[in-house]
Design brief:
Elements: H1 15-39, H2 44-58, E1 62-66, E2 69-72, H3 76-83, H4 85-103, H5 111-133, H6 141-170, H7 177-209, H8 215-238
Antiparallel strand pairs: 1-2
């Protein structure tokens, strides 16, 4: 393998497995477009553009992990906290497509693999953890910062292990699975900590200045009045 790409390069995973994950990525993005349309409003649309630009910038910082594969900040958890899971996945996907087509970061045949790992699996893992942690942590700038920090670490490691699975299904090099799994996990724990710090500081700053722009807090706060109103209606009916 000659050279190192920012993401998975061409030829690291065979054509058959790459094609399968390209189909998975396409289906997942279609669902995100369908579900994301309901979330987009006057606040979320411009925020999505800012999030995509920020992710593009931080992903330019990359570190070689294996021949043909490098580790870098993903930004999936930051995206889901600020713009939600559906739009967040689209933001990350847009960045990956632009990087691949314009800057040759990641192989074209591996684009489906990269989107599946970082835009779909990474953001999904981050969102599930964010949704769970915000049920028990305070809905404050500090609480959402801690949530983003923890979820970032987990989502980055999960995304890295998705590559391990893909390599197990169709890897084309002679590296052992133990070496790949251990190297990817160890490197991405450190990368996840760095990403968590960036995500935590970013979302805490936005939450202090404009909490209405933080999707995770907005969704939680808009859900409570509905429940309270329903409870009041029930009590009134009983009286």
């Amino acid at each position: 393998m000659n050279g190192v790409a920012m993401h998975i390069a061409n030829g690291i995973v065979n054509a058959q497995v790459s094609a399968v994950f390209a189909a998975i990525a396409a289906a997942a993005l279609a669902i995100c477009v369908w579900r994301g349309r309901a979330d987009l409003d006057d606040r979320l649309a411009p925020m999505a553009g800012l999030v995509a630009a920020f992710i593009f910038a931080v992903q330019m910082l990359n570190f070689q992990v294996l021949p043909g594969v490098s580790g870098h900040l993903l930004g999936g958890t930051l995206a889901v906290v600020l713009v939600g899971p559906w739009v967040g996945a689209l933001c990350v996907s847009t960045v990956l497509i632009i990087q691949c087509l314009l800057f040759a970061d990641g192989g074209l045949t591996a684009l489906g693999l990269n989107i599946t790992n970082m835009a779909v699996i990474g953001t999904a893992a981050g969102y599930l953890l964010v949704a769970g942690l915000l049920r028990i942590l305070p809905k404050t700038p500090r609480g959402v910062a801690v949530t983003a920090f923890v979820a970032s670490i987990v989502s980055v490691v999960v995304a890295s292990q998705a590559f391990v699975l893909e390599y197990a299904l169709g890897g084309t090099t002679q590296l052992s699975m133990t070496t790949i799994a251990g190297t990817m996990a160890g490197a991405h724990v450190l990368i996840g900590i760095g990403e968590g710090l960036i995500a935590g500081v970013t979302v805490a700053t936005v939450a202090r200045i404009r909490p209405d722009l933080v999707y995770a807090l907005r969704r939680f706060r808009t859900a409570r009045p509905v429940a309270t109103k329903a409870a009041q209606t029930t009590v009134g009916a009983q009286a």
